[in-house]
Amino acid sequence: MIVPVCQESKLIDRKARDKAAELVRRFVRGQISNFEFEGETPNTVDRGVLAIVHSLWCFYDDFEEHKLSGKRAFPVETKKQLIRWIVFLHTDEEYLWPEISYPGVRPTEHGFFSRLFKEPEKEREFMKAGDYSVWPFISKDMFNRARKNPKLLGRGLS
Q1: How many structural domains is the chain composed of?
Q2: Sign of the Cα pseudo-torsion (109, 138, 28, 71, in order)
Q3: Is 41 helix (H, G, I), strand (E, B) or coil?
Q4: What's phi and psi for 33, nearest 5 deg?
Q5: DSSP secondary structure, 104-142, as one string
Q6: 3-state class of 78 per DSSP?
Q7: Distance CA 37, CA 158 (A)
Q8: Does residue 54 contact residue 102 with C-beta atoms inside 8 Å?
Q9: What are phi and psi of 96, to 5 degrees?
Q10: Domain of 55, in residue numbers
Q11: DSSP assignment, residue 91?
Q12: Is 51 part of a structural domain of the chain?
């Protein structure tokens, strides 16, 4: 069931965001496997949840079950980035970035087929939409508001 937060046309699925935040946290810490993460991912239309879940797909093997631990554990810098994603999920901020595949892993390199389908142009437009250094937040102001009132993980932000 989707519980919208109605402010203009914004749709925040609070239940899905809470569940996704917990799953991402557990997955990044190596507590659950990639298959468990995929199997428990909430079904939602919340664009913020979808953008983060789709971006995480780029960080694991979807053919072999594994956890993000040992040699598969993320480096500290990647963990800091993912903490920001979790913080976003704990907000009621609307996801304001334009639609693009795997938005959390930009910029990307573009080969022949990518250029054929005008992906570099789509990416340029995407990157101009906000301050990518704080993605999935659209701006540093939005990110700083969330940092000032963290629900979880506030001490892990720099």
Answers
A1: 1
A2: positive
A3: coil
A4: -85, 170
A5: TS-S----HHHHHTTHHHHHHHHHHTS-GGGTTSSSHHH
A6: helix
A7: 27
A8: yes
A9: -105, 0
A10: 14-156
A11: S
A12: yes
Quick check: pTM over 0.85?
Answer: no
Sequence-distant (6+) residues with CB within 8 A of 108 are 102, 114, 119, 123
Q: What is the pLDDT of residues 66-88, one digit of tens each?
A: 998 889 888 888 899 999 999 99
Q: Does residue 122 lie in a domain region?
A: yes
- Whether 68 is in a domain gets the answer yes
Does some domain include residue 33? yes
Query: Amino acid letter at 101?
Result: S
Comparing CA positions, the residue from 88, 92, 12 lying closest to residue 55 is 88
Cα separation, 56 vs 106, in Å, equals 12
Which residues, at least 6 apart from 104, have a Cβ–Cβ distance to it below 8 Å? 51, 52, 54, 55, 56, 58, 81, 85, 135, 136
Q: Which two tokens stand for residue 95?
A: 């996801």
CA 88 to chain centre: 8
pLDDT of residue 58: 85
pLDDT for position 32: 95
The list of the chain residues with pLDDT below 50 reads: 1-9, 153-158
